[in-house]
Amino acid sequence: MSAAYVTKSPWVVHYDGSSCNGCDIEVLACLTPMYDVERFGIINCGNPKHADVFLVTGSVNEQNKGIVKQIYEQMPEPKVVVAVGICACSGGIFKDCYNVMGGVDQVIPVDAYVPGCAARPEAIIDAVVKGLGVLQAKRDAMVKAVDAPAEEVAEAAAEEVATEEKKAGAVPPIFTMAEIKVNTMDFLKK
Amino acid sequence: MIIKAIISVVAFLVLGPFLGGLLAGLDRKLSAKMQRRVGPPVLQPFYDVGKLFQKEKQTPTRFQDFYVILFVVFIIASGVLFFMGGDLLLVIFTLTIGAAFLIIAAYSSNSPYAELGAERELLAMMAYEPMVLITVIGFYMYGGSFRVSEIMAADNMAFLPLIGIFFGWVFILTLKFRKSPFDLSMSHHAHQELVRGATTEFVGRTMGWIEISHWYENVFLLGFVFLFFANGTAWGWIIGIVVALLTYFFEVFIDNCFARMKWQFAFKSAWVVAVVLGMINLFVLYICF
Ligand code: SF4
Prior knowledge:
The structure holds two protein chains of two kinds.
Chain A: E1 11-16, H1 22-29, E2 43-44, E3 53-57, E4 60-61, H2 65-74, E5 80-84, H3 86-90, E6 100-102, E7 112-114, H4 121-145, H5 150-168, H6 172-175, H7 177-189
Parallel strand pairs in A: 1-2, 1-3, 3-5, 5-7
Antiparallel strand pairs in A: 4-6
Helix pairs in contact in A: 4-5
Chain B: H1 2-34, H2 44-53, H3 62-83, H4 88-108, H5 112-143, H6 148-152, H7 163-176, H8 205-227, H9 234-257, H10 263-288
Helix pairs in contact in B: 1-3, 1-8, 1-9, 2-8, 3-4, 3-8, 4-5, 5-7, 5-10, 7-10, 8-9
Bound molecules: iron/sulfur cluster.
């Protein structure tokens, strides 16, 4: 396998679905001297065609689902989607609104979920760094795809992503959807 | 003579991107320090380009890649001509053709962002081109030759007699390096109003090649700064290299101190500098030499 450059320079594109802007401010807070994500080579490049990581804040609705899909499709492989904030994970407090479809995973595959309202910058950075494992798995699958038939590759990729997720499972809040739901319910009860 | 030329060309081809990439890394580290951040590792630009080459291929039109290849070839060729000790006029014409291919590549994508970026790049080119010509003419009027090898072997430093031209050149370096306040066509920094300007539609390895040729270009543009100090002696070399590095540091500093200006300002200021610093210097040279 070639050197793991994909994990060393994750460029980010950030899209505000229908967020209340709370999570957006936290995403931008990651760029400030306080958190300085450029330490990890992370750049907020604002261009889907250069990006490796897609940060979505806010839920998807009928108005923006096309845009979310389009941004996702414009990003070249390998790519990773991170849902930031409970709105992007499941719809959050807007879940039952008549126009809200739910979390981002209703329209595009999501690789990492960041719970919280608003998500904390540390959690966002953690999710992006965790997403790098998925990015690497996808890149390895791409390398294999050169001489393997497509279906096999897809299976292998799915498997590898699954193992990566298992490995990453040590930090539960970032990945498992079930836990997020429990957390949210707790939060709402409080 | 020929052997020396071959050695310096090979050195440029092999070491150029390393030096350029390292300079780019230092630029980012320095910028981060100036903003009280930790900043990326110094080797970050190499990781970035390595990653870009690992991305999926994607191009809006197949002509775009063709133009980008021409851009890379001409930029490298202009550097090779320079370090070979060739003719300065040939060098700047090759450089201009290279820059033109980048603009055509950006236009060919039909993306509104890339097109606007290309238009601004064209304006930037019109802004800096007079000063580039004046610089070359200045070298000729002072040393009597357009050939880099002869300028380098001259007895006296060209710096003092060409001092106005030197500062004019440093001024347009901001345009050539695409640093603030003149990074209007494509910015190395995160967001700008044109997404990524002229480079918006370059994906994966195409973008990687653009980065690599920028490294070549930066090394070669700093070579021009070096040329102001080069004379036959070792001192000329040392001073030249130190001043070239200081100039780069200065550009980074300026980059962090200014906001982006409109193209009108870029255009006017570059021409005013060319007329005031460049033309007056040429006039003095005409009278004295
Ligand atoms: S999770 Fe909270 S802070 Fe984030 S977008 Fe939703 S409501 Fe706003």
